[in-house]
Amino acid sequence: MENRTTVLAVGAGCFVLTLIFLLAGFPYDRLESRGVMAIERVVGGRMSFAESEQVFGLSGPAFEWRDVRITGATARPLDLDRLRARLAWSSSWLRGVPAFHIELEGPNGSAVGVVSLGSRPSLDGRLEQFDLAVLPDDWTVSGIDLLGLADAEIEVTGGDQWLGEVALSVTNGSLSGGRFRSGVPFHELSGKLQLAGDNRTEITSLHVTGPLLTADITGSIGPAANPGEAPLDLAVELDADPRATGLLRSFGIRLRTKGIQHLKVSGTVDAPKVR
Length: 275
Hints:
By secondary structure, the chain is mostly beta strands. It has two domains: about 1-110, Nuclear Transport Factor 2, Chain: A (Roll); about 140-275, no CATH class. About 15% of the residues lie in helices and about 50% in strands. It has helices at about 1-25, 30-45, 245-250; strands at about 45-55, 60-70, 80-85, 100-105, 110-115, 120-130, 145-155, 165-175, 180-195, 200-210, 215-220, 230-240, 260-265, 270-275.
């Protein structure tokens, strides 16, 4: 009970101090430019829009942009119907680190979250039915192309590299990389990825179900200057349809018996070794 009271007191204190800070003279006319800067810094691209306006609500003033286009993050521009940014209630302001609450909606899905700037920008939010084809390249796992519609919870911190956790569920997509150039179709892919130090991705859990195979994967994908040279250390539990025999053989996997196979994958993305 005492711990709970302490947490509530600290939270209330941060809220009150931040409110005083804002009411004491935060330059609202700079909200739009700071919001644009926050978005551009996180996605690594440039933002343009047809129109914008300042709006007010219970959470405070915000800017809303319409007919937004973000370019430079990927070869394919990200088009949005609406994007809104406001000041986020966060203790980071007390450290001089701006934080913004971001909402976006568009033909490629929707997202909501809190973006903090500073020397180590961070993102804490979620995606809903988001087309993964439009995500910035450095948000994807090295050497792996994942396509489909995703629901995801994201909590990452940037700087020299992104650190944190991504929990996702992707439907009606494909997974490609290494020798799977044409992609392996799936009905659903779900799991948790840990973006660790040294540009390493830890696969805490990854479950794939599709028309040709079912697989459970854990392990890690290591860092490399060339994505195809990223080292693999994976444990795979695989149950494949006989129709997938040719595809799996091209990846170095030879099915010896029917049923579930327990495999170890090492080597690199472009030259995996399966045993």
